[in-house]
UniProtKB/TrEMBL annotation:
The chain crosses the membrane at residues 15-36, 48-68, 80-100, 106-127, 134-153, 165-183, 195-214, 226-248, 260-279, 285-302. Pfam families: EamA. This is Putative DMT superfamily transporter inner membrane protein. Its main location: membrane. InterPro entries: AA-Vitamin_Transporters, EamA_dom, EmrE-like. Keywords: Membrane, Transmembrane, Transmembrane helix. It comes from mine drainage metagenome. It is found in: Membrane.
Length: 309
């Protein structure tokens, strides 16, 4: 596989377009927690993730052949490749590995809420490290989102306590997710999204494979739950969210792309309640309000000025 230097966008994407792509991204991302819960009834979390990423890489390669869209490269950019590789391992192996392991004892809806704290870490570091513009509206929006998450967690502590070991694994994974978003910003300045996905997905699958064998023996129960979950996560979640996230990072910046995780509580709790039948405390629903309001402030058109690349 060769790697292509990306062509710069002719103009930054509009705030409306970024909001639409970001909302779809958050919905599909949140649905992975539901599909993961279903799949883990038939196999272990690390086995499911390893097979998911390997299958996603294979499907992406086949799709490229069908569309006759080979990846060619006028020049190999070592720094961009390393950034893409590190970002992929942090997202897929570390973040999802820890999150899926924690999700065995933590409800899927609560998992989506915990992951929504990622922008609170990514945004200030994007402003400091990547020099992305992020004014008072962005800071106020993140504060509102944080308040919503704190409200939800406070309600959960009294109404529906969760396993704290699982919660800590998910939170540690969320830190890795925030770091990966910043590294992706470095990668997308030199590589096109499909090239990055072809680096990240199969390598992540191979990295998790020995861990899955050691911890879980690669044991699976080949039923509809396993195959349905695996193919949905590989084809829709892994390929779809990877390409959408990279597009968002390129056109809106790392902070704004990460900000769409603030929508995860809304979609995560809705899907968990309707598909898995999980109970959703009233405090969760109330906490979603400041989270969504915070996202609106983060995506204020003025915040996106000069953010596209």
């Amino acid at each position: 596989m060769s790697l292509a230097k990306s062509s710069p966008s002719s103009a930054p994407a509009s705030a409306v377009r970024i909001a639409m792509v970001g909302t779809i991204f958050s919905f599909v991302w949140s649905s992975a927690f539901i599909a993961g819960k279903v799949g883990m009834t038939s196999t272990g979390p690390l086995t499911l993730l390893s097979l998911r990423f390997l299958l996603a890489g294979l499907l992406l390669a086949v799709l490229g052949r069908i569309l006759a869209a080979p990846i060619t490269a006028p020049r190999f950019n070592r720094t961009a490749v390393l950034a893409a590789l590190a970002a992929g391992l942090l997202t897929n192996a570390v973040y999802l590995g820890l999150t899926y392991t924690g999700m065995r004892t933590v409800p899927a809806g609560l998992t989506a809420i915990l992951v929504s704290t990622s922008p609170l870490l990514a945004s200030p570091f994007a402003a400091l490290w990547l020099k992305e513009p992020f004014g008072w509206r962005g800071a106020l929006g993140l504060a509102a989102g944080f308040a919503g998450v704190v409200w939800i967690m406070g309600g959960r502590a009294t109404s529906a306590p969760a396993d704290m070991t699982g919660v800590m694994l998910i939170l540690i994974g969320t830190v890795a997710l925030a770091a990966s978003t910043l590294l992706n910003r470095r990668a997308v300045t030199h590589l096109d999204p499909r090239s990055i996905a072809m680096i990240q997905l199969p390598v992540s699958g191979l990295a998790l494979l020995p861990l899955a064998w050691w911890r879980e023996g690669l044991a699976i129960r080949p039923d509809m739950a396993f195959f349905g979950s695996l193919f949905y996560q590989a084809a829709v979640v892994s390929i779809g969210t990877t390409l959408m996230l990279l597009w968002l990072v390129r056109h809106g910046g790392a902070a704004r792309a990460s900000g769409f995780h603030l929508l995860n509580p809304a979609f995560g709790t809705l899907l968990a309640a309707t598909i898995l039948g999980e109970a959703v405390p009233a405090s969760d629903l109330l906490g979603v309000v400041p989270i969504v309001a915070g996202l609106a402030l983060v995506l204020w058109p003025g915040q996106l000025k000069n953010a596209g690349s």
